[in-house]
């Protein structure tokens, strides 16, 4: 038997322990759910206009990103579709009164999902501020355990990357997760004319044990409409 090469580079191993281990266990559980994915694109013209106006009014005191508008629209749409704002435990679906959005945040060792509670009761400016604070705490390692608890639906935004489409994994015991991709200019038809509009991709993944395809499709369609018109935002 040949002797091992003493000059071989040491193996680089990343054990699935700690945060990485918790992510592995949670994602395995989420992957086992009978999930379905649906995709839609939203015209972000109006949201971008409102975001720019709000940013101008706030000046440099606070940064407003489009994520805050997505969260506001998502929370209001979940209010209209309570079957998706629910948890599945021990073959029982519990409809949740509070709409608590978990926001996936990339950190050096993996992924955390701090929770913005009662998101439907907060303004875009309030959501932007809380999102910034929670994201900073997540990356700085200062999140309190309670800030990671009681989420009822998850949002994961890869809009800052070059990704056009992806299917996120459900964060159990939640029933749904929304994945956001980058916004790019595309030709679309408006009033019978071809124009260029900023289009954002959205992928809804849901647990088919608790939610059927049609109500999930209506939910995603309503979310698209709310982001397109920005009504109530």
TrEMBL record:
Gene3D superfamilies: Chloramphenicol acetyltransferase-like domain (3.30.559.10). It comes from Noviherbaspirillum denitrificans. It comes from the Bacteria. GO terms for cellular component: cytoplasm. Its cofactor is (R)-lipoate. This is Dihydrolipoyllysine acetyltransferase. Keywords: Acyltransferase, Transferase. GO terms for molecular function: acetyltransferase activity; lipoic acid binding. InterPro entries: 2-oxoacid_DH_actylTfrase (IPR001078), 2-oxoacid_DH_E2_comp (IPR050743), CAT-like_dom_sf (IPR023213). Residues 12-231 form the 2-oxoacid dehydrogenase acyltransferase catalytic domain.
